[in-house]
Specification:
By secondary structure, the chain is an alpha/beta fold. Helices cover 27% and strands 29% of the residues. The protein binds flavin-adenine dinucleotide (FAD). Flavin-adenine dinucleotide binds next to helix 1, helix 4, strand 13, strand 17 and helix 9.
């Protein structure tokens, strides 16, 4: 039996598991995906790659800033740009108003997750579907009948709706109410890869990233290849607005959705006319709309159950990191 099972290998789960393990706890981290990172995601493409989830890290507080400095020292992160452009709803491009460092990983955002998870015991490709109380802890189950895992305590490091599906029958009404109260927006990402012959056209682009403010279709446009040390071909990442995602999330033909997003950016990149590849990803839980003020939740149960994630205190990587750290501190203080 493990002392702690952490469900969800996004930044919150990885941070929590790493801190507990470094304090000498026996920890296992389980994720439904094969890879690590959750929304900190990189898509491998022929000859290149793109971050289709988290675009950059921008520290606000000292703890997260110190962690970023550690990642810079380890060669995982570097300053990508000092300013992000903005696009108004009527399509007017504005230069950055302030100069602050935005960090990105030249090898892709998942290199951050791999760095965090390097010494952890991780079980991938395992969707946890149920937990049941035992005499001294919890049994975790998945659809795979061969899978069986027990732990004294469980930390859910998933969006709250995904935790509720598993834990609802085990937790008190107040905890159910808090978990149910957090709403997430959805998002659709299109990745466009252009031919190597377009590299000069990309070099002429004067921005690295654009926040689209109250735009009907777009939320973000990134020249993602500019994060790489020696890019050989241009790669653009386009994220939809929440309204666009609501309208098209369940549309059957992803190619049409991707093309709509790429068509919307043509006025900004007139020299990049014909992508050689467009890929699309749908995010069912993109950003918490009404995060809780608490850094984590505890359920009133016989054996300990905790809930953490970006939605505890914010809706960015920094809040996920702080949430994972805080719940780990709580578990260590209790033991
Ligand atoms: C398109 C997009 C762009 C973004 N850009 C930025 C940005 O530029 N900067 C920034 O700071 N933030 C950004 N964010 C937000 C950021 O991605 C999140 O705040 C952060 O990554 C959340 O981390 P987390 O660990 O809380 O959750 P997640 O990353 O969602 O991790 C949860 C994990 O739980 C796993 N899981 C869920 N249910 C189960 C189950 N039943 N069994 C097993 N595993 C399960 C999932 O597979 C996932 O790996 C962006 C988000 C999106 C979607």
């Amino acid at each position: 039996m493990f002392e702690i099972a952490v469900i969800g290998a996004g930044i919150a789960g990885l941070t929590c598991a790493q801190k507990l393990q470094q304090a000498g706890k026996s920890v296992v981290l389980i994720d439904k995906s094969r890879g690590l990172g959750g929304r900190l995601a990189t898509r491998r493409l022929a000859g290149t790659h793109a971050d289709h989830g988290v675009c950059y890290l921008q520290p606000k507080g000292d703890l997260f800033r110190a962690w970023i400095a550690e990642l810079v020292a380890a060669g995982i992160l570097r300053v990508w740009t000092e300013g992000i452009h903005s696009l108004s709803s009527d399509g007017i491009l504005q230069p950055p108003t302030k100069s602050v460092p935005y960090y990105a990983a030249p090898l892709g955002a998942t290199s951050i997750a791999k760095y965090l998870g390097r010494d952890l015991e991780i079980i991938g490709d395992k969707l946890i579907t149920a937990i049941s109380l035992m005499e001294h802890g919890w049994r975790l189950s998945s659809k795979d009948p061969e899978f069986s895992l027990t732990a004294e305590q469980i930390v859910f490091a998933t969006p709250p709706a995904q935790a509720l599906v598993i834990a609802k029958t085990q937790i008190d009404p107040a905890c159910i109410q808090q978990l149910s109260s957090v709403q997430f927006s959805r998002s659709i990402t299109a990745i466009a890869v252009y031919p190597t012959t377009d590299q000069n056209a990309a070099a002429a682009i004067t921005w690295q990233g654009i926040h689209c403010i109250e735009h009907p279709t777009l939320a973000w446009i990134g020249l993602d290849s500019s994060k790489q040390l020696n890019p050989t071909q241009p790669v653009l990442v386009v994220q939809s607005s929440a309204a666009f995602a609501e309208q098209y999330f369940d549309a059957p033909d992803l190619a049409i959705i991707g093309q709509k997003l790429i068509d919307a950016i043509v006025p900004l990149v007139p020299a990049l006319t014909q992508p050689e590849l467009i890929q699309v990803h749908r995010w069912g839980y993109a950003f918490a709309q009404n995060p809780l003020s608490e850094r984590f939740l505890t359920a009133q149960t016989i054996a300990p159950l905790y809930f953490c994630g970006d939605w505890c205190g914010g809706n960015r990587v920094e809040s996920a990191y702080l949430s994972g750290m805080t719940v780990a501190d709580k578990i260590l203080n209790n033991s």
